[in-house]
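User: I'm new to structure prediction. If I give you an amino acid sequence, what do you actually give back? Let's try with this one:
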Amino acid sequence: MNVLLVRPDPGNERFGLGPFFRAEPLGLEYVAAALRARGVESTVVDERFGQGLASWIRRVRPRVVGISNIHALEFDRVLETARTVKRLSPETFVLVGGHAAAAYPGPLEAPEVDAVSLDDGEEIAPALVEALEKGRPLTGVEGLRLHVGGSEWTTTPPLSRRTPLDAVPLPARDLVERYRKRYQCLLFRPIWVVETARGCPFRCSFCSVWSLYGRSFRERSIGAVVDDFAAAGPHVFVVDDLFWNHPARSLELAKALKARGVRKRWMLVQSRTDLVSRHPELLEAWRDLAQDFDVFFGLEAATDKGLASVTKDLSVKETVAACELARSLRYGVTGNFLVDPAWDEHDFEELWEFVATHKLQRAGYTILTPLPGTELFRQLSSVLDGQPWFKYDMHHVLWEPKLGARRFFELYAETWRRSILNTSGEKSLLDWLRQVRPSYFPALTRLLLRTQRMMKAGAYMAEHEEGIRAKEIQPLPDRALSA
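Assistant: Good question. You get back a string of structure tokens that encode the predicted 3D arrangement of the chain. For your 483 residues, that looks like this:
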């Protein structure tokens, strides 16, 4: 049985840092590894690069096509990909999986989709392929939203257990090597993506990770993680939502990596400021594992009130302490703040002062967006109804800002102008180019020129006014603002 696994091109990178983060499709590599363990070979296609889907359909003649749907903004592009598959090969079974699909499958209930994976694809995809191969009813495959005909859909029983991560072989990286030189993160390429754990026990209101996995947190064994790091190249992005979550295990892992002789040119991990500020021994143990080591924090807000409003469950004091600690140990500190459409001008000024005081110009800024699968999305469903999915990129507004759209975007653009990405600011294009090899000059120049659009209020307003939507943008009800 031939299986084709597809990472679609999101088709929406006009705003944001997407061009700086083009990582390998790790989820598809894990699915391919799980299929391979059962004797089924796959082909992985990354539509962000290379040939179009039609040529791969003709070449592979797949019985099953799995389409990755990681973010809500990709719903329309995923359905477009599924339509292409069905047009070229009507008998091919189309399975959609990935975080956004599992968290909110409703938009994918379309004629061109046969099933949606509601949980770990490494377990569900092999079971589905085996059922198709042996002619068994698909209603017996756990964890599916299944198209049973016409407009009828049914949900099969959930997975009987959370998948132990070590039950899944190491990712089938060989299937994406033809794209390797195109994968990048910030100033580094090629990069390799590593996952050591999955899930998050915290409860941030803007995040759907914890709700999808029931606040669970699963870890791979030390041996499996060391093998994965050893197999990866010199530039590694660890995609765990919460790195260093278990301090004792994290110290053991650092010790095992050193014993194996693993050391990278560059590494990026994601963690929480309260975790880091309380455990300096973690940063000390890990620092020597990479020549350059960056840590990304979900900074979210510049005030305790702002942190509480998104249920971050930490304080600004811990943010400051974590940043100071990381810098003292020679870590690069970056992160992200949320910009709320309910803000007034004072809120923007408060953020600017915080960033300047604590030298956080490397941070990014995204608009608070109710992502499908979150409680915030459910609360605002009546206001959000009809908004196109491309606007869920966290750089569009989905309701009328308190200041009005024009003034809000003027201040939002000014916020980005105060960042390190502003080539007319403290760090020029020439300063950026000094950090990379000459062969990377053209690519970095293109990326930086694209990011300058985020500093132009008119660019946001043009899409705000012309946005494809089923109804006009509504003001946010007072009850939602208080929530």
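You can read the tokens as a compact description of the fold. Here is one thing that stands out. The chain has two domains: 3-152, 178-482.
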